[in-house]
Amino acid sequence: MKNTILLLLAVLLFACGPKEVPSIGDKHMVVFDNEHLYFDGGAFDAELDQSDKVYRIMDGRILMKKISLPSYDREVAASVKVTVASAGDRWDKSGSFFVIPEGAMPNFVSLQAGGDLPKGLEEHEGLPGVVAAGEYQPVVELMRFMTPFGIGFYNDKMDLRKPVYIPHWEDKVVWEQDITDRLSLLEGDVWVGVWIDTWTKEGYTVSAELKFDETDYLYAAKPKTGVQPLLNTIPYYRGQKHVDLFSRKDLVMKATVPAGVSNVKLNYITTGHGGHSGGDEFVKKVNIVKVDGEEVINFIPWRDDCAAFRRFNPGSGLWLIKDTATYIDSKARKYKEKVIEERLASSDLSRSNWCPGSDVQPVVVDLDVAAGEHTFTFSIPEAQEIDGDKLNHWLVSAYLTWEE
User: Fold this and answer.
1) What is the spatial distance between Cα 286 and Cα 302, in angstroms, rounded to a whole number?
2) The predicted structure's pLDDT at residue 312
3) In this structure, are residues 38 and 203 in contact, taking their beta carbons and an 8 Å threshold?
4) Phi then psi for 103, rounded to 5 degrees?
5) pLDDT value at position 128?
6) Which residue, of 77, 203, 270, 335, is most buried by count of CB atoms within 10 Å of its CB?
7) Could you tell me whether strands 372-379 and 287-291 are parallel, antiparallel, or unpaired per DSSP bridges?
8) Is the distance from CB of 284 to CB of 352 less than 8 angstroms?
9) pLDDT under 70 in the chain at which residues?
10) Which of 312, 110, 98 has its CA nearest to residue 210?
11) Do residues 116 and 239 make contact, with C-beta atoms less than 8 angstroms apart?
12) In 14-159, which ranges are E strands?
């Protein structure tokens, strides 16, 4: 009798214990494989309808593809890898790898066949596609990056520009980022794309991969998460332009946090542009974000480590700068000083949150907000206006993430 009772207890404990979560294993998807991304005005006008086919839109500066992604039950880590080399474009260009959920229609994928983006609000100067409008939602970036000066293509042509501390020019640049917080956008049928702001027919060679690493722990269920796009000022779609609104006003918008969610985070990606002397690319500007009037971000986005990327930038412009150097005199066996000329590359210069050849990490902050509607205010108080060919602008995107 005693043994029977013990056996029954063991069966009950097993039945009431943790359930094994089904596994589908790790997944690795090559989305774009050495695709040639380049500008050719009016050459690419096609309706986006087929899966697993690479489309070229925005005169070739955007590659788009509809892919089918797994829906995991077990805990999983997601990451993205982007590889870029020059196919003849020598310059540093803004780039973005992004996702559009299939359910966020209409969006600029469906609108490629005709029509326009929803008109922007008057307080946003009518800018289309920057914030949500009706069923339209801005795309969500998976990675922001900046192309180097001529990597790969110009290596042999620029050997005399190579500093002594660099053994060789790199053939390509590779970036990887964790994107697990955006996993809810990467299930089922989705559109993904790569944009590079090139204006040359030579352009770039681009690869992009998605990786899903499932945990080996049998009972680890995947948390339910969500993503709410807030804004995106990158000009992905025809009719859009570089946004210099921040030079005149704040961008104020409203968004709703659903009931029953926790661990709400604001994700903010920002880079300043305007390559002329004194442009927003080269001048420190504070970025401020407020939620319901309370400051949650206040910082100067700045990179002063750009010289560390010199090996990726063979095509960078170069100057000779006089400097007084202290060195070891081998004959005198002591330190001496000498005026020398050193190479200073354009790619070495500090910039507004980016370097040629770098990726850009989101700024992530925890928000203590209740369910319901909230007001978000995005400010760059000293941003400069576009003035002719002085293309001052800020590429800003933001989205919320949470757990359910």
Assistant:
1) 10
2) 97
3) yes
4) -80, -5
5) 85
6) 270
7) antiparallel
8) yes
9) 1-17, 45-47, 101-115
10) 98
11) yes
12) 27-37, 55-57, 62-69, 76-86, 94-101, 140-146
Return all residues near 86 (Cβ < 8 A) that are at least 6 apart. 147, 148, 150, 151, 152, 153, 154, 202, 204, 205, 315
Do 29 and 210 form a contact (C-beta atoms < 8 A)?
yes
Contacts of 267 (CB under 8 A, 6+ apart): 181, 362, 363, 364, 398, 399, 400, 401
User: Pick from 38, 67, 40, 229: which is nearest to 147 by CA?
Assistant: 38
Contacts of 6 (CB under 8 A, 6+ apart): none
SS3 content of the chain, % helix, strand, coil (to 5): 10, 40, 45
Residues paired with 231 in a beta bridge: 131, 398
* The pLDDT of residue 47: 67
Closest CA to 75 of 187, 180, 177, 176: 180
pLDDT given at position 44: 76
**In whole angstroms, what is the distance from residue 180 CA to residue 77 CA?**
5
348 in Cβ contact with 182 (< 8 Å): no
Residue 136 tokens read as: 């339209």
Angle (nearest 5°) at CA 400 between 395 and 404: 160
Reference 67, options 215, 177, 194; nearest CA is 194
**Alpha-carbon Rg of the chain, whole angstroms?**
25
Select from 235, 355, 363 the least CA-distant residue to 287: 363
Which residue in this structure is represented by tokens 């779609």? 237
164 forms beta bridges with none
Q: What is the pLDDT of residues 35-60, one digit of tens each?
A: 999 999 877 766 677 777 898 988 89
- Residue 27 pLDDT: 95
Task: Report residue 374 as tokens.
Answer: 């909230």
Backbone torsions φ then ψ of 158, nearest 5 degrees: -125, 30
pLDDT of residue 69: 93
Query: Which two three-digit tokens encode residue 402?
Result: 């949470």
Beta bridge partners of 319: 344
The CA distance from 28 to 213, in Å, is 8
User: CB-based contacts of 10: which residues, under 8 Å, 6+ apart?
Assistant: none
Tokens coding 386: 């576009």
- How far apart (Å, rounded) are the C-alpha atoms in residues 310 and 307? 5
